[in-house]
Design brief:
This protein is an all-alpha fold.
């Protein structure tokens, strides 16, 4: 019941965002996508993962407007890495959120995270991708289905 109520509120917010959004292309997203494409290729993940991570990034940052994105250049909503190789700087991070010196560092770090958790390289659908994220501990406190619905809602807002 609560999930339906939250999903309804999210969809209402998504509708309002579509009605009042800026329709110009987002240069931040374009730069991030370019960097991410290079690292996805270098780390031998499927090309489709670029789109999946960009969808996640749009949702996690509310289309690159969140405080954590603006202050930390953190497009993934990542927490500080404690037991893996990382490009996080955390010289100016907020709370326990990861901070990066550049979007290039952030793009590489998501690939380092995938390697560290042995993320599957055989996923072709966004819903399965989100389920894999959940199984690897990328997000907690909500179901994979709920997270997936949030990603889809934000993806519709971006157009």
């Amino acid at each position: 019941m609560l999930e339906r109520l939250l999903l309804g509120a999210l969809m209402f917010w998504a509708l309002l965002s579509v009605l009042f959004r800026n329709t110009r292309t987002n240069p931040i997203a374009e730069n991030l996508e370019s960097d991410l494409r290079n690292f996805i290729r270098r780390y031998t993940y499927p090309k489709s993962y670029v789109e999946f991570w960009m969808d996640v990034s749009g949702m996690e940052t509310n289309n690159y407007t969140s405080r954590i994105f603006k202050n930390n250049l953190n497009p993934w909503g990542m927490k500080v890495a404690k037991r893996r190789e990382t490009t996080q700087s955390n010289s100016y991070g907020l709370d326990t959120w990861a901070a990066y010196d550049s979007l290039t560092d952030a793009a590489q770090d998501i690939c380092l995270w995938m390697d560290a958790v042995k993320f599957s390289k055989n996923i072709s659908q966004l819903d399965a991708f989100v389920t894999e994220m959940k199984s690897k501990g990328y997000f907690v406190g909500e179901s994979a289905f709920t997270y997936y619905q949030k990603v889809l809602a934000q993806k519709k807002i971006k157009g």
